[in-house]
Amino acid sequence: MAWTYLLVASVFEVVFALATNATHGFTELGPSLLTAAAAAGGIFFLSLALRSLDVGVGYTVWTGIGSVGTVTFGSVLFHETITAAKVAAFVLIIGGVLGLKMADKLATAKA
């Protein structure tokens, strides 16, 4: 269940980042309220995930998924450019996230 909570927290992280961009310096009420709600939701679900995941694994996966999701959706919603260097960084981030998940699974299996 911890990984499910972490995925939900990551979705909130992406919404938080994208909504923050839409606040225009917190001058737009709707996006500002969405930003606050998404931040609270992300932290809440992250805290649930960290009940059974190591903080180093949980936080790193949360920020990794949030980073990749934010850049991906930022390109769609805000027409931001995705370069070859960004794609290479995505691959490294995703590889790191998968590596951490595998390492956590191996540690749990040994315990």
Automatic annotation (TrEMBL):
Its main location: membrane. InterPro entries: EmrE-like (IPR037185), Small_drug/metabolite_transptr (IPR000390), Small_multidrug_res (IPR045324). It is found in: Cell membrane. The keyword Disulfide bond does not apply. It is a multi-pass membrane protein. Pfam families: Multi_Drug_Res. Keywords: Cell membrane, Membrane, Transmembrane, Transmembrane helix, Transport. This is Quaternary ammonium compound efflux SMR transporter SugE.
